[in-house]
Amino acid sequence: MSYMWDEFNIKTFPAETAVFRNGVFCPELSTIVGCDINRKYARPVHIIYVGEIAGNCRLDVNINVDNQNVFIDVRVKNKLPAFFNIFIKNAGKNSECRGHILMENYNDLKYECMATHVGDDTTILVKNKLVAGRNTKSKLSAVAIIEKNSKNAISDIGFSAMADKTARIEFTPAQRILSIPNSAEHSASIYRPSSPQIQYLRMAGLSGAEVDTALGAAFMNDFSLF
């Protein structure tokens, strides 16, 4: 699936895949059906969700087996109002779910991520990035839930946004912790390039527009969970 890299800048690797484009499941690009993971695979599971979204869109990921690695790659944009939900449930002992979520909002976007731990030794790590265009509205919320009798969970949900000065953004991260985790982190920030970064690019001969493009590309591609 080299075109995933060419068109969406998503690096693929040997894995079982579930691919969605413009909110629609693509069986011809997938090796598994849907995102209910009820059997152990020898390879990791790579869930890819790309394209344009509008209206209500939802991605459900349920991990019901032990010792399974799951990676989620989301790269979407909306030119019309959109409400995007991602629900992750990890019930597999020693199973890990890691997600890179990139959203480009050019209208009105509401996004909710719910990450639920329902077993011992489960991991859910999700990094959410937003590019907010001119005069846009974005409301981003996340809830990490560590259920009772879910010991040693590792939970981390982070938000970062790069926004036009006219954009309006609201972050509402939350946690509900009913068992003692190994770690439970939340973060939210607005990305602003430093003066040395801008100066370096200008000294390299880039125009103002080219500097903005380079900084935007660096922000969008700076994911490190996998």
From TrEMBL:
| InterPro entries for the chain | SUF_FeS_clus_asmbl_SufBD_sf (IPR037284)
Protein name listed in UniProt: SufD family Fe-S cluster assembly protein
Protein species of origin: Candidatus Enterousia avistercoris
